[in-house]
Amino acid sequence: MSKKRPFLTVDNATLRLQDRTILQNSSWQIHADEHWAILGPNGAGKSTFVRSLWGGVPLRSGRILFNFLGSETDLSSAPQRDTIGYVSFETHQVLMEHEGIQEDLRAFASKNDEGTTARDVIFSGLPADRTLSSSDQKRCAEIADLLSIQPLLHRGITSLSTGEMRKVLIARALMKSPKLLILDEPFDGLDEASRQTLRESIHRLMASALRVVLVVHRLEEILPPITHLLFVRDGQLFMQGPKDEILTSENISRLYGCQLRLEKEDGTYRVSYETEKKEPIDSGLLSEEVHQDLPETLIEMRDTTVQYDGHVVLDGLNWVMRRGENWAILGPNGSGKSTILRLILGENLQGYANQITLFGKRKGTGESLWEIRERIGAVSSELQIQYRKKMSAYDVIASGFYDSIGLYQYPTTEEKEIVDRWIQTLHIEDIAHRPYHHLSYGQKRLILLARAMVKSPALLIVDEPCHGLDIPNRKRVLEILERIGHTQTNLLYVTNHRDEILDCITHVIRIHKGKVLSQGRKEEVLPKPVQA
Q1: Is 182 left (phi over 0), alpha (psi -120 to 50) or beta?
Q2: Which letter, b or e, does each residue of 33-72 get, where b requires 16 or more Cβ atoms within 10 Å of its Cβ?
Q3: I need a surface site. Which of 167, 257, 428, 504 has the fewest CB within 10 A?
Q4: Is it the case that residue 187 has pLDDT exceeding 80?
């Protein structure tokens, strides 16, 4: 029997992350006929580990051998950025930070019509000094067809949804024809149809000479072609081996530190857990002041239309949200969900050209951005991208009292007590005093939920609240939101996962290509499936 040919080897490596070391003396090997998925709790070190494979995190000791380039090629000499494709939330964040700077420069030069397009981003995956050839144009078209993003190519990236940008970034990674493709949570932000399209695309990629490593939190995202699993826990490589041997209820429960039951149907894995008694939210956490004089109608949009360069994002939207209602906004990527939220939060200037009323006041009648947000809490990927301040997670939570990106005044004793109680409610004591920018994506999401709730908002906007969350934290957040939904705080909830629609949701609006397909009470818009 011939020995398997190694593709990439991590040999006794220890990583340096800021001022600490993690994954000490770790060893791992991908063989030429293997595809891997990496799982583990939030903050375990998964993203840090895969970033080290292309030089994004320095090695303190050990080595990484790129066997596919030659047995003696190691991290110090390999042109890894040209041979490894990498896509993550961080790459999205860096891109949008750069675009924000470019927008400011264009505005200063009165060149507001020259924004970066999706096509520009895709070609930026090639060396900057390279002249685009006809073969480059052809490959771009082939990748766009593979990922079903042809309609996005000429659109500005600031008008794209999180899910649409994720596919554009994958296309950029594929432009350089990498040997290894690392996808860190690639399905987050995608609707069901887009997830299925991406699954099929990754299937086809796996059938080529390209090797794929997926970092995932949902077991259903472990695709059938995945051959091996790597479990990461507490900054260590916890367990690794063939998928069918590693993926058991016992091992998953050990990985996440709670009792879980693994289920498999038609090649797809799912996990279930026992439901616990849900305690109501402590009434002392919720201030009555924000809810005083709250009008009957919280949000009203009449014939609301938003368009960019002739592309209509919202088309004559008519919608009313009243006090005591919890709404879910459902629709595919690019349907206009995020645009509705930006209009409410005052982040889209076209809101002032439409008939929009918030808490009884017509937009454009003199209210400031801070007055709009005074009664609103928000959790979203966009906010997470904006929040780049280097400060403690505790101070990020406290900044929710002032709706600021950063903390510019010290919280009062009473406010600190509220912060402490939300930290306890969300069980985030272990991360609350760590630097926010050192936290994992999922840990930051928990901090932002606490930030949104400290001021007892009359309206809580949650856009894909489970993005980046591991199995226990996803369960925890959904239970907390369910409890919040039974308080005086009204929920406006966006999700691409039907199984995450909360019981407390009373109404649903479904939109497609900017138009309302249906809206009304949940049981009318989303009837329960008939039991066999």
Answers
A1: beta
A2: ebbbbbbbbbbbbbbbbbbbbbebbebeebebbbbbbeee
A3: 257
A4: yes
- CA–CA distance, 476 with 467 (Å, rounded to integer): 13
Helix, strand or coil, per DSSP, at residue 44:
coil
Q: Dihedral of CA 168/174/175/180: which sign?
A: positive
- Angle of helix 89-108 versus helix 162-175 axis, rounded to 10: 100
CA distances from 150 to 88, 118, 122, 193 (A): 21, 10, 12, 16
Q: Give the lowest-confidence range in 86-100, 141-155, 425-439.
A: 86-100
CATH number 3.40.50.300 given to 6-272: yes
Handedness of CA 72, 76, 82, 86 (dihedral sign): positive
Evaluate whether 6-272 and 296-523 have a shared fold. yes
pLDDT tens profile 482-526: 988 988 899 999 998 888 999 999 999 999 999 999 999 999 998
Report the distance separating Cα 139 and Cα 146, nearest Å: 10
Instruction: Domain ranges for the chain, please list them.
Output: 6-272, 296-523
Contact 499, 487 (CB under 8 A): no
Helices and strands, counts by H and E, the chain: 17, 21
Q: Give the largest Cα separation in the chain, rounded.
A: 78
**Rounded (10°) angle between helices 192-206 and 162-175:** 10
Q: Global pTM? A: 0.84
Concatenate the DSSP letters of all residues of 216-228 into one string: -SSGGGS-TT--E
513, 481 Cβ separation under 8 angstroms? no
Nearest to 6 by CA among 77, 51, 65, 92: 65
* pLDDT exceeds cutoff 80 at 162: no
- Token duo for residue 78: 């390999």
* CATH of 296-523 among 3.40.50.300, 3.10.450.50, 3.30.70.2760, 3.40.190.10: 3.40.50.300
Tell me the C-alpha distance between 183 and 215, whole Å. 6
Q: CB of 224 within 8 A of CB of 207?
A: no
Q: Are 292 and 280 in contact (CB under 8 A)?
A: no
Please name the helix (run of DSSP H) or strand (run of DSSP E) that holds residue 84, with its range, or none.
strand 84-87
